[in-house]
Protein backbone atom coordinates (compact mmCIF):
# COMPACT_ATOMS: atom_id res chain seq x y z
CA UNK A 1 0.00 0.00 0.00
CA UNK A 2 1.27 3.50 -0.80
CA UNK A 3 2.12 5.82 2.05
CA UNK A 4 -0.47 8.59 2.39
CA UNK A 5 0.58 12.26 2.28
CA UNK A 6 0.53 14.10 5.61
CA UNK A 7 -2.90 14.95 7.03
CA UNK A 8 -2.05 18.67 6.91
CA UNK A 9 -1.83 18.45 3.11
CA UNK A 10 -5.32 16.98 2.87
CA UNK A 11 -6.82 19.46 5.34
CA UNK A 12 -5.51 22.52 3.50
CA UNK A 13 -6.45 21.03 0.13
CA UNK A 14 -9.95 20.21 1.37
CA UNK A 15 -10.36 23.73 2.81
CA UNK A 16 -9.53 25.22 -0.61
CA UNK A 17 -12.00 22.94 -2.39
CA UNK A 18 -14.78 23.78 0.09
CA UNK A 19 -14.15 27.52 -0.27
CA UNK A 20 -14.14 27.22 -4.08
CA UNK A 21 -17.35 25.16 -4.09
CA UNK A 22 -19.17 27.61 -1.77
CA UNK A 23 -18.18 30.49 -4.05
CA UNK A 24 -19.31 28.58 -7.14
CA UNK A 25 -22.66 27.68 -5.56
CA UNK A 26 -23.36 31.33 -4.73
CA UNK A 27 -22.41 32.46 -8.21
CA UNK A 28 -24.19 29.63 -10.04
CA UNK A 29 -27.41 28.57 -8.27
CA UNK A 30 -28.44 25.06 -9.20
CA UNK A 31 -24.86 23.98 -9.87
CA UNK A 32 -24.82 21.38 -7.07
CA UNK A 33 -28.11 19.87 -8.21
CA UNK A 34 -26.93 19.68 -11.83
CA UNK A 35 -23.66 18.11 -10.67
CA UNK A 36 -25.62 15.55 -8.64
CA UNK A 37 -27.75 14.63 -11.66
CA UNK A 38 -24.70 14.30 -13.90
CA UNK A 39 -22.94 11.95 -11.50
CA UNK A 40 -25.98 9.88 -10.50
CA UNK A 41 -24.81 6.93 -12.58
CA UNK A 42 -21.76 6.66 -10.35
CA UNK A 43 -23.94 6.44 -7.24
CA UNK A 44 -26.06 3.72 -8.83
CA UNK A 45 -23.02 1.61 -9.64
CA UNK A 46 -21.52 2.11 -6.15
CA UNK A 47 -24.79 0.91 -4.60
CA UNK A 48 -24.84 -2.06 -6.96
CA UNK A 49 -21.30 -2.95 -5.95
CA UNK A 50 -22.16 -2.70 -2.24
CA UNK A 51 -25.15 -4.99 -2.78
CA UNK A 52 -23.23 -7.49 -4.91
CA UNK A 53 -20.55 -7.69 -2.22
CA UNK A 54 -23.33 -8.03 0.39
CA UNK A 55 -21.80 -5.23 2.47
CA UNK A 56 -25.08 -3.86 3.93
CA UNK A 57 -26.24 -7.31 5.05
CA UNK A 58 -22.81 -8.23 6.44
CA UNK A 59 -22.70 -5.02 8.50
CA UNK A 60 -26.28 -5.52 9.68
CA UNK A 61 -25.39 -8.99 10.96
CA UNK A 62 -22.13 -7.93 12.63
CA UNK A 63 -23.00 -4.42 13.90
CA UNK A 64 -19.46 -3.14 13.22
CA UNK A 65 -16.38 -4.53 11.52
CA UNK A 66 -12.81 -3.56 10.78
CA UNK A 67 -11.46 -3.22 7.25
CA UNK A 68 -9.65 -6.52 7.71
CA UNK A 69 -12.86 -8.29 8.75
CA UNK A 70 -14.81 -6.83 5.83
CA UNK A 71 -11.98 -7.72 3.47
CA UNK A 72 -12.15 -11.34 4.64
CA UNK A 73 -15.96 -11.45 4.55
CA UNK A 74 -16.18 -10.04 1.02
CA UNK A 75 -13.05 -11.70 -0.44
CA UNK A 76 -12.01 -8.44 -2.11
CA UNK A 77 -8.81 -6.49 -2.67
CA UNK A 78 -8.28 -4.61 0.58
CA UNK A 79 -7.16 -1.30 -0.95
CA UNK A 80 -10.02 -1.28 -3.48
CA UNK A 81 -12.50 -2.18 -0.74
CA UNK A 82 -11.19 0.70 1.37
CA UNK A 83 -11.85 3.15 -1.50
CA UNK A 84 -15.34 1.73 -2.04
CA UNK A 85 -16.09 2.04 1.68
CA UNK A 86 -15.01 5.69 1.65
CA UNK A 87 -17.43 6.37 -1.24
CA UNK A 88 -20.22 4.46 0.52
CA UNK A 89 -19.52 6.51 3.65
CA UNK A 90 -20.01 9.73 1.67
CA UNK A 91 -23.37 8.33 0.51
CA UNK A 92 -24.24 7.39 4.14
CA UNK A 93 -24.66 3.73 3.16
CA UNK A 94 -22.04 2.92 5.77
CA UNK A 95 -20.54 4.89 8.65
CA UNK A 96 -16.87 4.95 9.48
CA UNK A 97 -16.16 5.14 13.18
CA UNK A 98 -12.72 5.61 14.63
CA UNK A 99 -10.61 3.58 14.97
CA UNK A 100 -11.21 1.75 11.70
CA UNK A 101 -14.74 0.49 12.43
CA UNK A 102 -17.41 0.27 9.74
CA UNK A 103 -21.13 0.24 10.52
CA UNK A 104 -24.32 0.28 8.49
CA UNK A 105 -25.31 3.87 7.66
CA UNK A 106 -28.76 5.46 7.65
CA UNK A 107 -29.26 4.96 3.88
CA UNK A 108 -27.63 1.52 3.92
CA UNK A 109 -30.53 0.02 5.85
CA UNK A 110 -32.78 0.64 2.84
CA UNK A 111 -30.75 -1.51 0.44
CA UNK A 112 -30.57 -4.61 2.60
CA UNK A 113 -31.67 -7.77 0.81
CA UNK A 114 -34.83 -8.62 2.69
CA UNK A 115 -37.91 -9.63 0.73
CA UNK A 116 -40.22 -9.17 3.75
CA UNK A 117 -39.04 -5.61 4.45
CA UNK A 118 -41.49 -3.22 2.77
CA UNK A 119 -38.97 -0.38 3.11
CA UNK A 120 -36.19 -2.23 1.28
CA UNK A 121 -35.06 -0.71 -2.01
CA UNK A 122 -32.84 -3.70 -2.78
CA UNK A 123 -34.89 -4.90 -5.75
CA UNK A 124 -35.25 -1.41 -7.17
CA UNK A 125 -31.49 -0.90 -6.78
CA UNK A 126 -30.76 -4.05 -8.75
CA UNK A 127 -33.18 -3.20 -11.59
CA UNK A 128 -31.98 0.37 -11.91
CA UNK A 129 -28.34 -0.70 -11.96
CA UNK A 130 -28.74 -3.40 -14.61
CA UNK A 131 -31.36 -3.68 -17.36
CA UNK A 132 -32.99 -0.33 -16.63
CA UNK A 133 -29.62 1.43 -16.63
CA UNK A 134 -28.57 -0.16 -19.93
CA UNK A 135 -31.84 0.63 -21.70
CA UNK A 136 -31.79 4.29 -20.64
CA UNK A 137 -28.69 4.87 -22.77
CA UNK A 138 -31.02 5.01 -25.78
CA UNK A 139 -33.55 7.60 -24.59
CA UNK A 140 -32.59 10.14 -27.26
CA UNK A 141 -33.13 7.56 -29.99
CA UNK A 142 -36.49 6.63 -28.46
CA UNK A 143 -37.58 10.29 -28.32
CA UNK A 144 -36.56 10.82 -31.96
CA UNK A 145 -38.13 7.65 -33.35
CA UNK A 146 -40.72 6.55 -30.80
CA UNK A 147 -39.04 3.13 -30.74
CA UNK A 148 -39.13 0.98 -27.64
CA UNK A 149 -35.84 1.02 -25.67
CA UNK A 150 -36.68 -1.94 -23.43
CA UNK A 151 -34.27 -4.88 -23.43
CA UNK A 152 -37.05 -7.11 -24.83
CA UNK A 153 -39.04 -5.26 -27.51
CA UNK A 154 -42.24 -7.32 -27.14
CA UNK A 155 -43.23 -5.44 -23.95
CA UNK A 156 -45.05 -2.12 -24.12
CA UNK A 157 -43.91 -0.72 -20.77
CA UNK A 158 -41.05 -1.25 -18.38
CA UNK A 159 -43.51 -2.40 -15.73
CA UNK A 160 -44.81 -5.13 -18.09
CA UNK A 161 -41.23 -6.19 -18.77
CA UNK A 162 -40.30 -6.36 -15.08
CA UNK A 163 -43.48 -8.20 -14.10
CA UNK A 164 -42.77 -10.83 -16.76
CA UNK A 165 -39.40 -11.67 -15.22
CA UNK A 166 -39.26 -14.68 -12.93
CA UNK A 167 -36.97 -12.99 -10.42
CA UNK A 168 -36.83 -10.40 -7.66
CA UNK A 169 -37.56 -7.75 -10.28
CA UNK A 170 -41.26 -8.72 -10.33
CA UNK A 171 -41.59 -7.83 -6.63
CA UNK A 172 -41.01 -4.14 -7.25
CA UNK A 173 -43.92 -1.91 -6.42
CA UNK A 174 -45.67 -0.01 -9.20
CA UNK A 175 -45.03 3.08 -7.08
CA UNK A 176 -41.32 2.97 -7.88
CA UNK A 177 -41.61 2.28 -11.61
CA UNK A 178 -44.57 4.32 -12.85
How would you describe the overall organization of this protein?
The protein is 57% helix and 6% strand. With 178 residues, the protein is mainly alpha-helical. A hairpin with a 3-residue loop joins β2 and β3.
Short description:
The protein contains eleven helices and three strands. The protein has helices spanning 7-27, 31-38, 40-52, 55-62, 67-74, 78-90, 122-128, 131-135, 139-145, 158-164, 174-177, and strands at 64-65, 94-97, 101-104.
Task: Please give a handful of descriptors for the protein shown.
57% helix, single chain, mainly alpha, flat, 11 helices, disordered C terminus, 178 residues, three-stranded antiparallel sheet
Q: Which structural class do the helices and strands define?
A: mainly alpha
Shape: flat
Order of strands in the sheet with most strands: 1-3-2
Number of helices: 11
Q: Calculate the terminal CA-CA distance, rounded to whole Å.
A: 47 Å
Average pLDDT reading: 77
Q: Biggest sheet, open or closed, and with what strands and sense?
A: 3 strands, antiparallel
Instruction: Summarize the amount of helix as a percent range.
Output: 55-70%
Poorly predicted regions are 166-178
Strand content: 5-15%
The ordered string of helix (H) and strand (E) elements is HHHHEHHEEHHHHH
DSSP, total strands:
3
Question: What integer value in Å does the Rg equal?
Answer: 20 Å
